[in-house]
Specification:
The strands form four sheets. A four-stranded parallel sheet has the order 5-4-6-7, with helices on both faces. The protein has a four-stranded parallel sheet with strand order 9-8-10-11, with helices on both faces. Helix 1 packs across helix 2, helix 6 packs across helix 8 and helix 6 packs antiparallel against helix 11. It contains 13 helices and twelve strands. By secondary structure, the protein is of the alpha/beta class. Helix content is 41%, strand content 13%. The N terminus and C terminus are likely disordered. Helix 5 links the parallel strand 6 and strand 7. The chain has three domains: 187 residues, Rossmann fold (3-Layer(aba) Sandwich), CATH 3.40.50; 137 residues, Rossmann fold, CATH 3.40.50; 68 residues, no CATH class.
């Protein structure tokens, strides 16, 4: 199960080594084109008999450059670990009610996104868009999605990973597996692009904050103001190796900072990575340390906020709802709740739609300028027939902002105003 790296480039634009990122160049589309939007999701086993195969793929190291004995050693290790873990996951699978509800959330997201895209006036006339769901771990199947796309005569592909932050073991694995899968189909010749990290969008942050507010409502009114937030992200903060420096740690910290900055309520919070012990029983000591510190500070009401997922996940739902709750009770937490998934929150889905639309540019750039700038321009008296140089400075195609012929996709008007206001202030310090 070797994995292609055709969808990756490093910071210098090569595909040899270093930090790997997906290709993000906008698609140039024209009348008659059919664009397929593929939601890359974690997915979940459809039945107990699918759990071993699902775990085997999930435990497979995402290092696409492993060859020869290293590849077979990794394959053997992942299958052995999956075999040992399957009985425990079968128990947890039954406890959370199976994986159908998780896959249903992903299907609902695809239906909602499809409806929004097809009703959008930003999509050029004569261009059709279809939405598909696929998981690198087998459920829902990438091959099934590819077959459906071939049948639908898709000409262009937009990959939309539903992992808020880029990580080699999630987004990286999904893109590499997609590259391997479509090598067996004619889709391999279709122009493709990838939507970059959407966790920086205000729409995602606002949706997550609304879910936090809803979670706070589960606590009594007297206790609510004293609830501490425990942000969690799954996995390790360390890279897989010194050779592959994963940006995941920096990105999840950045998400937490942005969420708290948007809240502006001075609420006590902590952030930690959550991971089971190597043998699968209990959680690692670093998480216990964070909870113990909160209790020592007098915080006995905790709201857990997963920041690296948009829907409940098969391999973490039980960990957060049962294992972590048990640990918290033992350490002195008296009130414990977990924030619900974002799922199809309208703000989140609106942001996803904007992200997809930002990835398409018609072949006629001047046409695109007139079409999008008329919609987004805060000056309705602007003459669309005049030269692009007459557009105001907020316009994404203004000559002082972008060189002609190199214009990026437009953003929604609200996003344009935010980006413009940001440009007048000094950039925030990176995490």
């Amino acid at each position: 199960m070797s994995k292609s790296i055709s969808h990756f480039t490093d910071l210098n634009g090569s595909a040899s080594s270093g930090v790997l990122f997906p290709v993000q160049a906008p698609l140039h589309i024209a009348k008659g084109d059919k664009v397929g939007v593929v939601l890359l999701v974690p997915g979940a086993p459809e039945s107990k008999s699918d759990i071993f195969a699902y775990l085997s793929k999930q435990f497979m190291l995402p290092d696409s450059r492993a060859t020869g004995i290293k590849f077979w050693a990794s394959r053997f290790q992942s299958r052995l670990k999956a075999r040992l873990s399957t009985p425990r996951f079968v128990h947890e699978y039954e406890a959370i009610g199976g994986g159908d509800s998780i896959n249903r959330f992903n299907r609902e997201q695809a239906v909602d996104l499809d409806r929004r895209l097809k009703s959008s006036s930003v999509v050029p006339v004569g261009v059709s868009m279809e939405t598909y769901v696929a998981s690198p771990f087998g459920c829902p199947s990438m091959k099934d999605a590819a077959r459906k796309m071939e049948k639908d005569a898709i000409t262009h592909i937009i990959l939309l990973p539903l992992f808020p932050q880029f990580a080699s073991h999630t987004t990286g694995c999904a893109l590499a597996e997609w590259g391997k899968t479509i090598s067996e189909f004619s889709l391999v010749n279709c122009p493709s692009t990838t939507v970059w990290e959407f966790a920086v969008r205000d729409s995602f942050l606002s949706a997550l904050n609304e879910r936090i507010d809803q979670g706070l409502q589960r606590f009594s009114r007297a206790l609510r103001s004293d609830v501490a937030l425990l942000f969690v992200a799954h996995g390790n903060k360390e890279s897989l190796s010194a050779k592959d420096k994963d940006p995941y740690c920096c990105m999840v910290h950045n998400t937490v900072d942005r969420v708290m900055k948007q809240r502006d309520d001075n609420r006590t919070f902590e952030f930690t990575f959550v991971k089971r012990k190597d043998r699968g029983e209990g959680v690692e000591s670093s998480l216990k340390t964070k909870i113990r510190k909160m209790v020592q500070d007098g915080k006995r009401a905790v709201l857990v906020v997963p920041v690296d997922q948009v829907s409940e996940q098969f391999d973490s739902s039980y960990l957060l709802e049962a294992d972590l709750r048990k640990v918290s009770d033992t350490l002195g937490v008296t009130h414990y709740h977990v924030v619900s998934g974002i799922n199809c929150h309208p703000l989140f889905m609106s942001g996803l739609t904007d992200s997809v639309l930002d990835s398409i540019v018609p072949k006629s750039t001047l046409e695109r300028r007139a079409e999008l700038c008329q919609m987004a321009c805060p000056k309705p008296m602007w003459d669309s027939n005049s030269a692009p140089t007459s557009a105001c400075s907020i316009c994404p195609y203004h000559p002082t902002q972008n060189a002609v012929g190199e214009s990026p996709p437009s953003m929604a008007h609200s996003e344009l105003k935010k980006e413009t206001s940001k440009s007048t202030t000094s950039p925030s310090k990176p995490v």
